[in-house]
Amino acid sequence: MSQFVFLYRNGEKMSPETMQLQMGKWVAWLKALGEKGLLVSAGQPLERSGRLVSGAKRTVTDGLFTEAKDVIGGYSLVEARDLDHAVELSMGCPIYDVGGGVEIRPTLSM
Q1: Separation between Cα atoms, residue 82 and residue 63, nearest integer Å
Q2: Mean pLDDT (whole number) for 15-33
Q3: What is the pLDDT of residues 69-79, one digit of tens each?
Q4: Which of 8, 86, 95, 97 is 20 to 30 Å from the Cα of 59, by its Cα?
């Protein structure tokens, strides 16, 4: 088994009622992955603020400066046989229901 990071790309803005329904779906989906022994870490939601440090001079810039549709809202760490299996596991993610997406990245063993 290998580890993969699921990076959750935000979907549409939601009403409080829809957000509550979504949270229930997230809890159920993550619980199911955990019961199968495939969830290493549920991760955490991420704030929409931050700083970017870049370049040889370590320039610090306030804000993330990405389009709202591309903002990563959170992450999880899962175990899967391979990338295709990780993609299959992501198919149950509730973020798709609200126009979001999951970026799936294999981790490297060091």
Answers
A1: 34
A2: 95
A3: 568 889 999 99
A4: 8
Say how many CA atoms lie within 13 Å of 66 toward its Cβ. 14
Q: Which structure tokens are listed for 7?
A: 């990076």
In sequence order, the 6+-apart residues with CB closer than 8 A to the CB of 99 are 11, 12
Q: Residues of 2-18 as b/e, b for ≥16 C-beta within 10 angstroms?
A: ebbbbbbbbbeeeeeee
Domain 2-106 class in CATH: alpha beta
Per-domain boundaries in the chain: 2-106
Query: Contact, 1 vs 81, CB < 8 A?
Result: yes
Q: Answer for the pair 105, 7: CB distance below 8 angstroms, yes or no.
A: yes
Instruction: Render pLDDT for 3-13 as a digit per residue (tens, 0 to 9).
Output: 999 999 988 88
Structure tokens at 87: 């993609």
